[in-house]
Amino acid sequence: MDTALSLDREALVNGYLRNRERADRIFDSVRPEAYESRPIPLRNPICFYEGHLPAFAVNTIVKRGLGRPGVDEKLETLFERGIDPEDEKSRPKGASAWPSRIEIRSFGAAADRLVLDALANADIADESNPVLAGGLAVHTVLEHDSMHHETLAYIFHRLPYDQKIRPSGLASPRIGGEPPPRRSVRIPAGRATLGAAPGEIPFGWDNEFPRISADVPAFDIDVDSVTNRDFREFLEAGGYDDESLWDDEGWAWRAEHGVRHPLFWELHRGTWMWRGMWDLIPLPMAWPAWVSHAEASAFARWKGRRLPTEAEFHRAAYGTPEGIEREQPWGDAPPDATRGHFDFAAADPVPVGSYPRGTSAWGVRDLVGNGWEWTSTPFAPFPGFAPMPSYPEYSADFFDGKHYVMKGASPMTAKELVRRSFRNWFRPTYPYVYAKFRTVRGGPLA
Ligand code: AVJ
Ligand code: FE
Questions:
Q1: Which atom number of ligand 1 is nearest to the Cα of residue 424?
Q2: Atom in ligand 1 nearest the alpha carbon of residue 398
Q3: Residue 427: helix, strand or coil by DSSP?
Q4: How far is ligand 1, taken at its centre, from the CA of residue 58, in Å?
Q5: Which residues are bridge partners to 156 per DSSP?
Q6: How deeply is 84 buried, as exposed, middle or buried, from its count of CB atoms within 10 A (0-12, 13-18, 19+)?
Q7: Consecutive 10-residue runs of the chain (446 residues): their mean pLDDT?
């Protein structure tokens, strides 16, 4: 057809190939003996994901979208969807025996051939088909891949070091010195826009629509994310043993799993260490504390503060004293490596405040990058929500009041996901994700 369309196809093919190569690199960092291991008990074993990415692409574009046959019905069902059980006892059974890596990879290669053929030749933006219209299925697959690259990173983070193959040429971590003093800034009352209007962005997940507006009363918010230094004070003050700081679910989780410190911390002969992706290092005090929502909430309560709501996050990140709202904390320029620690910059954090070019109009730092930011808002649909035809279960299955919204980005978040309307979510007692937090206080400054 016309040149515009063929250029488009080329970009989609390149995007797909780039994603598949990134996935290959990630899977190649696992030693063969760990391939069927399950580093996180609440998720599937590693091998599942190597089948899941191509299965999702075939299921979404080729079968659901184009109505064509896939590669292998049995494998496409086995690898259809991940899991998110409440606890280990309620974990679905899954396969009793997984296919070998060779079988999984040859399934992946066959799936890629079908998908690439569709991207090159089929009517993948058929406006009469809601699954395909506007390239919906293709964008769904591309962003699903990117999202899983982060998922894989935080899962592999938990593998013992001797089960991973360290990439050559790793940059050494930026440790930093003492963190900056804790400060907060006042955000006056104003409006925040959440979500996006249909057609406003080239692609968004269903939970990003429609666009809504929220009135946000004045509050003050931490300029920097809570650091390991800050969090150590909480720990040393007995925060993990003070039931009054925790809600019931968090307290029960702490008791059942013996949680006494952040998952990324380890005590070795009396010294706190950071369990990095590739190395165990002395705990960098200026790095953000990556913790669960339950731990973040307890810390905030200890300070006499609380986590920001999703609307407060938007106000702090995208609002301005002039009243206009911007696409990114730093303005309307697209995300790049000078604005924040994201887009696979590393698997571990950098000192808070390392990206002055990413600062918001109010002077709030690191809102996007260096770890997702927990909010106090339960993940729920915006009024007018409709499940997306290309993946109707994507969000709808998680509107259960048991997940909380995270905003921003982590070092392993692809830059195409760095957009204002993007919403992430996890259970409050799921400690594995690359998530930090900051605290707020409503009402007049004391
Ligand atoms: C949006 C990151 C919570 O990891 O469960 C991947 C993304 N959904 N495949 C998840 C997702 C289906 C999802 N999160
Ligand atoms: Fe998935």
A1: 1
A2: 3
A3: coil
A4: 18
A5: none
A6: middle
A7: 62 97 96 96 96 98 98 98 91 87 98 98 96 97 98 98 94 95 97 97 97 97 98 98 98 98 97 97 98 98 98 98 98 98 97 98 98 98 98 97 98 98 98 98 67
Residue 361, C-beta contacts closer than 8 angstroms, at least 6 positions apart? 319, 320, 321, 326, 329
Which residue(s) pair with 184 in the sheet? 222
pLDDT value of position 446: 43
Whether the CB of 154 sits within 6 Å of ligand 1: no
- The pLDDT value recorded for residue 1 is 45
Residue 52 CA, closest ligand 1 atom number: 9
Token reading at 302: 């200890």
Ligand 1 centroid to 147 CA: how many Å? 7
Q: Is the pTM of this model over 0.70?
A: yes
Is residue 108 within 8 Å of 8, Cβ to Cβ? no
Euclidean distance between CA atoms 33 and 36, whole angstroms:
8
Query: Can you read off the two tokens belonging to residue 89?
Result: 């006892």
Q: What 8-state DSSP symbol labels residue 406?
A: E
Cα 147 to Cα 423: distance, rounded to the nearest angstrom: 12
| DSSP characters over 172-188 | PP---SSPPPP-EEEE-
